[in-house]
Design goal:
This is Hydroxyacylglutathione hydrolase. By secondary structure, the chain is of the alpha/beta class. The chain contains 10 helices and 15 strands. It has helices at about 10-15, 50-60, 75-80, 80-90, 165-175, 190-200, 205-220, 230-235, 245-250, 255-270; strands spanning about 5, 20-25, 30-35, 45, 65-70, 90-95, 105-110, 115, 120-125, 135-140, 145-150, 150, 155, 180-185, 225-230. The strands form 3 sheets. The protein has a 7-stranded mixed sheet with strand order 1-2-3-4-5-6-7, covered by helices on one side. The protein has a 6-stranded mixed sheet with strand order 8-9-10-11-14-15. Strand 8 and strand 9 form a beta hairpin. The protein starts with a strand and ends with a helix. The protein binds zinc ion.
């Protein structure tokens, strides 16, 4: 699959804030992201589970990475780090809580920490649930969010190391970002997520329209990424566990959002669509 580049629309208002984001498909359905800060020319990589497709993309563009950003310790997100670090000597940035299980970490960050990538200010959110140490990176000026396996287009990550309460809190934190914030998540799961989403939010017209768009995109072999916070807030059932329509649709009217979220997550775990 060919990689595709998107220029942030933030660049139309603030030229210095632009980051080019290149999607690099890996394995069956992972996305690795290669970033280039327009102002400084610095190049970063997010979640390189595999080195080979990243090296091919960098070679093709003549780019040399200075930074690697890691959202969590799963091998399909860090498996290429050792080879990339040996080859390019980038600074590897990841979660302080995962320092014991992410080899090659240079900079360990946690909730509320900030770092810099070229001219970009980068803010870290602690988002436990999929894993206990999971973090997300928000590039403020470009308004681009890299949530790893916490938030997907129309979905969220499985709860391998966290509780529904933790994951709901993590998602609410990300949901609070502004509507135009672009979301670059760790996997292309959107089509199967859409098939599930309509079963728990059947009256949502925006969701139905989006499900049709997604089916058409995938039919053409195109990525469904990036999504935006605004689109997810309106259509992603995992962000809508406090919406009365969703609560009623899953048979839990008036229940707490945490309880409704847990029900939706459990149904998805058993969904065969
Ligand atoms: Zn994962």
């Amino acid at each position: 699959m060919a990689s595709q580049a998107y220029h942030g629309f933030a660049s139309q208002q603030r030229e210095s804030a632009a980051v080019e984001v290149v999607l690099v498909p890996a394995f069956a359905d992972n996305y690795i992201y290669v970033l280039r800060d327009d102002a400084s020319g610095k190049v970063g990589i997010v979640d390189p589970g595999d080195a080979a497709p990243v090296i091919a993309e960098l070679d093709r563009r003549g780019w040399t990475p200075t930074h690697i950003f890691l959202t969590h310790h799963h091998n399909d997100h860090i498996g290429g780090v050792a080879e990339l670090k040996a080859r390019y000597r980038p600074t590897v940035i990841g979660a302080r809580a995962d320092a014991h299980r992410i080899p090659d970490l240079d900079v360990a960050l946690g909730e509320g920490d900030r770092t810099v990538f070229g001219e970009q200010a980068v803010r870290v959110f602690a988002v436990p649930g999929h894993t206990s140490g999971h973090i997300a990176f928000w590039f403020e000026g470009a308004d681009a969010l890299f949530p790893g396996d916490t938030l997907f287009a129309l979905g969220c990550g499985r709860l391998f190391e966290g509780t529904p309460e933790q994951m709901w809190d993590s998602l609410v934190q990300l949901r609070a970002l502004s509507d135009p914030t672009r979301i670059y998540c760790g996997h292309e799961y959107t089509l199967s997520n859409a098939r599930f989403a309509v079963t728990v939010d059947p009256e949502n017209a925006a969701l139905r329209a989006r499900a049709d768009e997604i089916a058409a995109l995938r039919e053409r072999g195109e990525p469904t990424i990036p999504s935006t916070i605004g689109v997810e807030r309106r259509t992603n059932p995992f962000l809508r566990a406090d919406d009365p329509a969703v609560q009623a649709a899953v048979g839990l009217p008036g229940a707490t959002p945490e309880r409704v979220f847990a029900e939706i997550r459990s149904r998805k775990d058993h969904f065969r669509g």
